[in-house]
Specification:
This protein is 34% helix and 23% strand. It has four helices and five strands. Strands 1-2-5-3-4 form a five-stranded mixed sheet.
Amino acid sequence: MEVINALGRRKAAVARVFVSEGKGQITINKRELANYFPSPLLQYIVKQPLNKLGVVEKYDIRVNLDGGGYNGQAEALRLAIARALVKINPEDKKALKSEGFMTRDQREVERKKPGQPKARKRFQFSKR
């Protein structure tokens, strides 16, 4: 099997994934998964598509992660892994889509407007 690549985005985070057959190692920016995401919850989020299909020990995943915070990065990585798994086996798409792993969360930060302290917050109104 050749190397399959995929892209996942969430908020400001971008995850580029390279999947090849192996023993189940996930390397993020040349660091181990447990080292990059110390939180067990974030590790669980990243492995969700692999656990759903039962292929955790089947593929080695090399990741280039950039931008955003740790939660956005974990969700971007989940989307990228799901997309790569569908490229490998298109029949898996239905199972992954039903869990919501194939959907790009398009919510982004709203920009700050001029004359306001934040995007929607206004300065205090003074009548007199």
